[in-house]
Design brief:
alpha/beta, about 525 residues, Immunoglobulin-like, TIM Barrel, globular, eight-stranded parallel β-sheet
């Protein structure tokens, strides 16, 4: 053990103010050092003191009808039986989203009343961004009921006056696709008001409570759309109208591209979250990148190196938005996020287990920023083509399955604590976050080494460890999750040895659960 480590340990014990505790900790440290020398393992040491709350909404999924570019919603819906495909429901339950969002760019031209009421009377719509014609057979009630069936809360993104985009606000024939505060407020009432007449006329006496609503989608990304000052004023107008329909709703305002600070200055009293998106290429579009198309197959080691560094630009983006929000105290909502890599079907490398490990590192970044990041995702939800989806749907039939990003999100979702903890020390090669609920400690451990296992001995002083389990996803990094072989990455569950030692396989993602026992 290094001298600095011993001094740090003494300072920690000093805070406890107990000479007896000091003696016990030093004895354990000395024994641990001897054990490490004999076993070849290094210490993975956690400070189990709770630091801040971790939001369950860090496992958001995002659903948007993607027209001709991807089967998406249309593939998930059984039009013959007017229901969601059972295999999609089953796979989504395995994924375990805590929150599901409806909207995206579609919101800028979506008129919600076209997607409610008797299906035979629903009006089809032009999908202005994604192409084709949307039948509106899946609308508000179908989406919210799907959320209920899979155990998720619903988040709806309203038509924010087309975000100021004239090309979506009015069609060439003069049809208006923009919608204002009154239409958004009517949507809130339709979902949440027990006495809403339109919903009751549709044969739905019970409300479909939607607690979260987003105002503006990527509003700052279009120079021909709203400027910041206009967007802030309209945010206030929308918020006031929607809260007249239901004062209890929580609202998310748009704050990307340097907008966050000013948006909160002007509209912050009306907002519970500030939103930003991050669809990014970790190689920043380099022409010789191994993440382009099928280049990943030519040099797996170089591909792995690129993917393992992807967390760096992602964390940099989160830090920038944090700095813009400053000390205003408004939580962040990352309502869309995924790798954006060039190539067929949004790049086939994303079907490899190497991409799954990379996405686990991004999830660890989210946890480390969990004091302010309260809503987040790493994928589009479902579809038939885009590799950024968490869930793939075989068409015209078959069993839906989770992509690598979906596998790691499902693992973390089921094995996470409510309070973040500090990782004091970790072996080289492991990316680790920690949390706890009561006396149960949770670790998320990513072995960033492509071909080498890492052995570690878990410690959580001043506690000792009780019984524990280790849940691991591991496979060769080049293994691909595809329709003909949808389950090459299997989850294993093994008891944690009594001494807290464990060998994390190469290229693995693990969740460790262990009881804490007072010393």
């Amino acid at each position: 053990m290094k001298t600095d480590d011993r001094l740090s340990r003494r300072r920690f014990v000093g805070v406890l103010g107990s000479a007896a505790a000091l003696g016990r900790l030093e004895a354990r440290a000395a024994q641990r050092d001897r054990d490490e020398e004999s076993s070849g393992s290094a210490t993975l040491e956690v400070d189990p003191a709770p630091r801040f709350d971790l939001s369950p909404y860090l496992y958001l999924q995002f659903m948007e009808p993607l027209g001709t570019t991807d089967g998406s919603v249309a593939a998930a819906w059984d039009f013959l039986r007017n229901r969601w495909r059972p295999d999609v429901i089953e796979a989504t339950r395995r994924l375990g989203p805590s929150l599901m969002r409806w909207g995206g760019c579609l919101s800028s031209y979506y008129r919600w009343q076209e997607g409610v009421g008797p299906r035979a009377a629903r009006r089809p719509m032009l999908n202005l961004l994604w192409g084709g014609i949307g039948p509106n057979q899946v609308g508000t009630i179908e989406f919210v009921d799907f959320c209920r069936e899979v155990g998720a809360e619903a988040l709806l993104a309203v038509n924010f006056e087309s975000d100021g985009r004239k090309r979506w606000a009015t069609l060439p024939d003069g049809e208006v696709r923009a919608a204002g505060p009154e239409e958004a407020a009517a949507w809130v009432s339709y979902c949440n008001d027990p006495a809403n007449g339109l919903r009751r006329d549709h044969g739905l006496p019970e409300p479909r409570r939607v607690p979260l609503w987003q105002l503006g989608n990527e509003t700052s990304y279009d120079r021909n759309g709203f400027d910041l000052e206009t967007a802030a004023r309209r945010t206030v107008a929308f918020a006031r109208a929607m809260r007249q329909a239901d004062p209890t709703i929580r609202l998310i305002g748009w704050g990307d591209s340097g907008w966050a600070g000013r948006m909160l200055d002007e509209a912050g009293e009306h907002l519970q979250y500030i939103a930003f998106h991050h669809m990014f290429n970790p190689d920043q579009g380099k022409r010789d990148s191994p993440l382009r198309g099928i280049e990943y197959r030519k040099d797996p080691a170089r591909t792995w190196e690129s993917l393992m560094s992807a967390w760096q630009p992602h964390e940099a983006k989160i830090r920038r938005v944090r700095a813009e929000v400053g000390n205003r105290g408004t939580p962040l909502a990352l309502t869309e996020c995924h790798f954006a890599l060039p190539g067929r079907n949004r790049c086939e490398v994303l079907s490899t287990w190497a991409a799954g490990v990379a996405n686990a590192r991004l999830l660890n970044v989210h946890e480390r920023h969990g004091d302010v990041l309260k809503i987040a995702t790493l994928a589009d939800f479902c579809g038939t083509r885009w590799q950024v989806n968490a869930l793939m749907i075989p068409v015209p039939g078959g069993q839906s399955y989770l992509m690598p990003v979906g596998l790691v999100m499902a693992l973390y979702r089921r094995h996470s604590g409510e309070k973040a903890c500090t990782v004091r020390r970790r072996p080289e090669g492991l990316d680790v976050t920690a949390s706890r609920t009561g006396n149960r400690l949770y670790l998320h451990v990513v072995n960033t080494r492509r071909t080498q296992a890492v052995r570690a001995r878990l410690g959580a002083e001043p506690h000792t460890l009780g019984t524990g389990r280790v849940f691991t996803l591991a496979a060769h990094p080049e293994v691909e999750v595809i329709e003909t072989d949808p389950n090459p990455v299997q989850l294993s569950e093994v008891a944690l040895p009594n001494d807290g030692s464990w060998t994390f396989p190469a290229a693995s993602v693990s969740a460790v659960e262990v009881d804490l026992v007072e010393a």
